[in-house]
Design brief:
single chain, 181 residues, alpha/beta, Rossmann fold, four-stranded parallel β-sheet, 5 helices, 41% helix, globular
Length: 181
């Protein structure tokens, strides 16, 4: 239900600026522009460095993020776009497959905020994208930043498990004792 307030976490704080890539499908350009404005506003409030790329549609957003995660140096990603229900089943395909792609990457540890709107009408999209209203672009950026914060927190910790030899040992076939752990 539009307009209902909900709890929002405080934005994380960072010792060093996170690098975010916003990937947007500007199929509905004015909606996309509002989503980007909201995402940039939240990222700037956290001191994040932001790059922006455009892709043709929502189905290309996960592919672009997957490529950037492999080939570029970003801490997290913000997926933005808008899918409005039409007369065919294409809507379900685009909604489900773009979401599934992003979710699978997230389960692999990639920090992604999903701001791809899936709505029935243009009017619903306009309210959700507006930075002064529901600000779903800002929410997606906040989600990515929270995940980056968690990944940085956990990357500094060691679990203290595993094999840690305290002395040298001989490996089969090693005659001079030069193998060391």
């Amino acid at each position: 239900m539009a307009g209902v307030s909900h709890y929002t976490l405080d934005l994380p704080q960072f010792d060093s600026a996170p690098r975010l890539l916003i990937v947007v499908a500007p199929y509905y350009k004015d909606i996309a522009d509002n989503l980007v404005a909201g995402a940039r506003g939240v990222a700037e409030a956290c001191g994040a460095y932001v790059d922006l790329i455009e892709v043709p549609g929502a189905l290309e957003v996960p592919s672009a993020i997957a490529m950037a995660a492999r080939m570029a140096d970003y801490d997290g990603f913000v997926a933005l776009g808008c899918v409005i229900r039409g007369e065919t089943t294409h809507y379900e395909t685009v909604c489900n497959d773009s979401s599934r792609g992003l979710t699978l990457m997230g389960l692999e540890g990639i920090c992604i905020g999903n701001g791809i709107l899936t709505v029935e009408t243009y009017e619903q999209a306009a309210v959700r994208a507006d930075p002064a209203d529901q600000n779903k672009g800002g929410g997606a950026a906040a989600a990515a930043l929270h995940l980056i914060s968690l990944s940085r927190k956990w990357a500094r910790r060691t679990k203290g498990i595993g094999f840690k030899p305290t002395q040298s040992f001989r490996v089969a076939g090693d005659t001079d004792g030069s193998s060391q752990a």
